[in-house]
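Notes from the pairing session

We agreed to fold both candidates in a single pass and log them together. This is the raw record for the first candidate, unedited. Please don't reformat it; downstream parsing expects exactly this layout.

Candidate A
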Amino acid sequence: MIDLNPSYQREVVWPETKQIGLIDSIFRNFYVPPVVFAVQKDEDDEDVFICVDGKQVCTARLTSIQKFFDGQIPHRDTKTKKNFWYTTSESSKGQRLEVPDFWKEEFSKKRITCVTYRNLAPGTEREIFQRVQLGMTLTAAEKLQAISSPWAQWIGELEARHVTVDGGLSHVLQWDTKRGRDYQNIAHMVYCCDGIPKQQLLPTAQKVEKWLSRVDEPGQQFKDDIERVLKDFWLIAHRKELNEGFTKIQQRVAPVEFLFVGVLLYTLRGASLEDRAKAIHILRKSVRSEFKDIRNNSVVGKAMWKHVGDLAVNPTSSGIFGGSSSSGKGRKKRKVDYSEVDEEYRPEPVRSLGKPLKIRPRPTKT
């Protein structure tokens, strides 16, 4: 059995021009990089071949070959620039040039090289995935997915339970989930929540990669709180009486908005669903009135943290829009103390378990 979908895989991103280029490479005996498999045993002790860069190599390449056989893509002659089709329908025979039978037989005899690894540790398998660059450079989001750690595994489980599942957040929200961006968004959100109450963190690729690589386990209370945040996120986005923060704003949810909606729900997890839904609407409308370009940068991030702080004091405050605040004119706003909404103690991240101590044996008397 071949498994094309290990958790760290990226999406298929081959355009048709690249598919046609592969067919030409095979015809002309050019070097085609091998398909890389990690072989593991299943519960029946049968070999399972896991494509280490599966969706790019196995799916994209094998699909390209199949599409050529089926007449969906042509072979393009590099000299004449003419297209030749392996299969032509009756209606297109006069319009399309067909590959001669001799070259059809030659093409069908070609072989793709496969490389297999056995008994790999999960971390080594992911490291191979990171290093196999066959056509498309990994995005920052895909690099996060390739990290092997307790926190990375947990983020992957959150993605599977709340985003990619049928009817999950990938379906009820208008947002970009391609090439690992949904995993990245959840990781950024959890990273920021992990800093509360001590820090107002702003995610960068380097900081989040370092944080996600930590070797300690996430605390159970923190895991439960994040689980609740994502469940409530889905409820608010799904229910018509609560989802004005997503339906009344035409633009799709930007990554930085997803991140800070999660932070807001985490901060307000003691408030009612109705109040949190209103707070989401206020947050998105406020930041979009301030910025034309909603990107994950320090300027937008700091503004988001300010709004989260204001909404932590009053989740339904209209003062953020420039109207009258419920606290009264001229009254000074109380600065939010995040320790009031996060009582769990969380230790500093453990970057490495270190080397085992060497103990010198005591000499024995004779």
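Candidate B (folded immediately after A)
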Amino acid sequence: MKYADVAVKCPSYSPFCYAIPPHLNVHVGQAVWVPFGSRIVQGIVVQLGEIPSVNVVKEIDDVATGYPLLSATQVELAQWISRQYLASLFDAMALMLPPGFERKLASYFHLSGDQSGLSLLTPEQAQILHFIEERGRVGLKELEKKLGASKAGRITDKLVDLGLVVRFSELEKARVEPKVIPYIKLVASKDDIASEIARLKTTRAY
């Protein structure tokens, strides 16, 4: 198995070691999703190796981009900036990342179809379950606005534990959309173009 040192967004000067699952093709400078505490966060691959730098490692969850965002030279420059100016490694890399790169996983809920735990719900929990049923799916952020972060977390955790709803994650929408520049190109041959220019020169304008 191969391993990758990954810089994640936290106040650390050093990357964290993760195992690369056999089905993933990972390169230096590539953005990946990794487990970090109880969350799944984005990180940038700093280095690849055959031997882990720690005894216990978690696996990379998935790749965030199918190609490297930073070259090996840029990764080395970010490491130098981190050492020289005592900045976190991820922040040093972020200086060279495309605008709007960083995205988060947002949590959503939908009904599971299992109703065996309905009798165990409080009135408020039943109300939220009905709200999810009416909407089809509801984001955690929407529930946090409605109930407050703490209460939304407690109620959704209970609904998930009872098997009444399913929690799933999706990428948040990118904050910056790619800039599209339109181009045009000639499709006629050089001879046809020259002939048309000559014809237009002799054409009288009215």
